[in-house]
Every structure is written in structure tokens, then in C-alpha cells.
Amino acid sequence: MKRIGILFGMENTFPGALVERINSLGHDGIEAEFVEVGGVKMADPSRYAVIVDRISHDIPFYRGYLKNARLTGTAVINNPFWWSADDKFFNYALADKLGVAVPPTVLLPHKHYPEGTTAQSMRNLQFPLDWDGVFEYVGFPSFLKPFDGGGWRDVHHVHNRDEFFHAYDQSRDLCMTLQRAVNFDEYFRCYVVGQEKVHIMPYDPRRPHHERYIQNPPAYDPKLIARVERDALTLCRALGYDLNTVEFAVEDGVPYAIDFMNPAPDADLHSVGRANFDWIVDAVAELAVKKAQHKAQESGFLWSAFLGGEAVGPAKKAPSKKAAKKAPAKKTTK
Fold it and tell me: Which of 159, 189, 217, 245 shows a CA-CA span of 20 to 30 A to 47?
């Protein structure tokens, strides 16, 4: 029996619906359930062929458990090694290299020293910082936000220097980015599953949370929709995420990628609405079953295997010298 485990926290609608959907597909030898985990023995295999991770970004114990599970052959959606390494500022720089439109963005030093550090720890920092150069490059209005945060926590919309410094002074020891605001005409949040399927949802982040997914949206330019889908796939394939949301703010017909590090995206029925909920449940169920049925080729206990999409396991041994000598020589033609 191959088991698919769902690891989750406070959310209520998606995990149960996903388990129900996977089990309703009726694949012989495949069963979904909620993960149950206690003390984890090192290098001890988990009972799951696949785990869908919805919570390890908030619970370090779960992240450690998932890394051990991946080491011992479990496929994890999403890869816990890459998720741990990734951050939003890197995402923006990568998007720029990939030719995906992204607003000018600057990474800023911590306002307050991170715990356990002092002024002596910061001797490589430029002082004073060239704030005029930062503001000239980014411009106003802009958004000050954490370089690896989520859920709109500690995000500030600033319109001038004074508002910026007021917000920056409140950022504690967080590492922040300053990004030019997009005066958008349209806004899209896109589910991307398996680096193949894209579901584009008209969205308005200015509305109250429960009204942000727009019902009965207007017709959009087909070329714009095609570019949004293409750019969403480009980003998720480059980042290696099997489950993600990518957000685009559209100004003057150009979709700017705003946020695309969401490896445990909102999938609550009461938030996203019935049609979007049904789509993401079906898509993730099909992906999890596919991963349970088709194990990737093992590529050894190497950093590249942990970070990449390969299965982790002993690499195949090279043929011995004796066997190589017995192998017939290939004929060549002149």
C-alpha cells in the first residue's frame, strides 16, 4: 500500500477534501490520510510515499521531519530543502533574469540588529546607506515588505521618504525589501500545480479578505492571459515548485510578477470560493497520485538531489573494470 499523507495546521476545508478526493479516485494500492508523527529517528523511513506539506514553514519540527522523509525516499510537495533555501528577493532577481516583468526592488539591511549580533557584526555594511540612490531606483509609491514573509504581515504602502522611514523604524530585526508599487488595472492570482497546470483567478488585494477573489470578472485580452500563464509556468519551473501561487499586477497591459513564493497557498473554501476550491483539490489530488505511482530516478545522496526533483537514494554503481573489459568494443566507421 502506498500512502499519501497530508501535513497541515489550522486550515479545515482543504486537507479533508484532498484526502476524500484522492481516495475517491479508486487507484488500487494508493490511500490518503492525515500524517501522524511523533519522535523521528534519524534516517528512519516514513510510512508515506508522498506527503503534501501545508504547514512546515511555521513549524520547524515538521520541516526537519520532512527533510528526513525526503532523504529516505518520500516525495514531498513542496521540496523542503529548496523551500528552506528560497526567499522573495532571490525570486525577484530570478524573474528579472528570466525575462519576467518585475518592479524595481532593493534589499535593505535590518533596522535593528538580529538577535545575538552587535554593531561589530555589521562592519561590512556601507554607512551611511545611500538612501537617495535607493529611492531614485525604486521610486514612490512603493511597498516595504519582508524579504521572506507572507500573509501580508509587516507590509507597508509608503508614498514618500517620511512614510518610508516611519515604516522602516517599525521593521524590528526583519530583513526588508523596498519595491515600486504597480498602479494596476487588473490583478491575477494563479494556482500552478505540477509545473504544468495553471488556474488564473481575478483578484483584488485592496478588498476585504473574503471579497478578494472576484466573481463574474470581465473578459480579458487573450494575449494578456496567455502571457500570464506563460510567465507563471516559467517562474514555477525555474523555482521547482509543484504547488504555488503566482500573483501579477497589470499596469498598461504589462503583467508584473509581485509575489510567487507561496508553496502552501491559500486553498480555503470560504476564501477562494467553490469553483477555485474544486479546481485546486482536483489538481493536487492528481499530482499526489502521479507522484505515488511514478517514483523519480534515484541520483545519490548529493546536495543536487536534495534540492532538485530527483529521488534521493544510493546512486547506481559504475561497472567494475573487469566487467568493462568484457564489454564488446563498439564498431566505428571511417
Answer: 245
